[in-house]
Amino acid sequence: MTNRISRTEAVLSTIERIERLDPLVNAVVVRDFERALRDAEEPHGPLAGVPVTVKESFDVAGLPTTLGLHANAMNVATRDSEVVRRLRDAGAVVLGKTNVSAMMAGFATDNERYGRTNNPWDRTRGVGGSSGGSAAAVAAGFARIEVGSDLGGSLRNPAHYCGVYAHKPTFGVVPMRGHGLPSMLLEPDMAVAGPLARSAEDLALALRVLSGGDARLLPTRRAPLRVAVWPHDPASPVDAEISARVLEVGARLASRGHFVDEHVRPSFDPSAYRATYAALVAALAGAAASDDAYASFEDRARSLDSNDDSRAAAFARALVSSYRTWVRRDRERRRWRDAWRTFFEDIDVLLCPVVGTCARPHDDPPPLGDVFWASLATLAHLPATVFPCGLSRSGLPIGVQVVGPELGDATTIELARLASEELGGFLSPPASFGGSGPGRQADALATLPEQH
Known about the structure:
By secondary structure, this protein is an alpha/beta fold.
């Protein structure tokens, strides 16, 4: 039987672990240990005494929110973001904030202020972005629960690279107030906040807290589930090993009595779907840009050859698109959302890759199409859960994504739990990092008093 320790002891143990091992990872870049120890002495709520961290882009009263830029060093929050307030109200102990991609843009967690975050599985490799520090912190045992954000896979890609669980909620379920810089758009289109953890159970608990028990969320769809499997697509190449793991998850679920279909797909063209997503993301970026940046975007768009129909040109034009163009793109999105609703009349969840490769070496450019699998859920405001399902032949984590209907968050998390029963769930990083090698890790996070 596991020995239980006090909540203060658990927080102290986690702080010691961060101080000892984070120099290898560089995940928890803003620390608030003194306040955390005070908070640990007053346990209350469903997350009483649970050590958590949050992405650097979320305001924490008294701490800077810089998005990795020296120019924002004086932007010190005067109050907690809404997600931090909800975590504290539930009794969680906020240890600090985790590293991000500069301005939350790009696929690598590296910036001028805090530097680069390394993958606990292989420190020569990256953790993705922009919630890369979030996933690394959970994988390394620096937090039991973390909160990140997601627009282009910013929660899901790092979870896959680092071998942890993550949940992108249905759009609007978790409030984004207090996320980003004061000059940035408030609760922008498609962007969400969501939890990362080491188990599906912890994801479910965190989502209940972060959503405020949102009554709109549908009850869990019970087994047997109707599962579609989409392992690869010409629109976005996927390593054969990752595609095979998606198929294996489907096969394991079928062996447990779930209905699995490897051929059914939503009724849209993947390339057109991706183009709509890219255009709306570009319009969002243009709207959030400074006047000087927007003027440079306009100059770039005017300089393009009228016959240039490349993806880069389309993105450049969309950065400065008119409201009329945005409305037309949004109309396309509504058609895709209707296609998903029709799809989910006969299917409960969709299994697919998170991204096309495992964690890549630092400075490797991302392959084209890296956001396609993330865009499936993002464009249509759907929930998606990422869960770890073993290692590649080279010893790197592989995650699988499960997408569900709007407000069907509980079912995607439940599918992740069911898959974990078959494939083993979270594995600790190797002994070279400071763990005991791949396997279940017994540390302070595993010995906390049970939460309810």
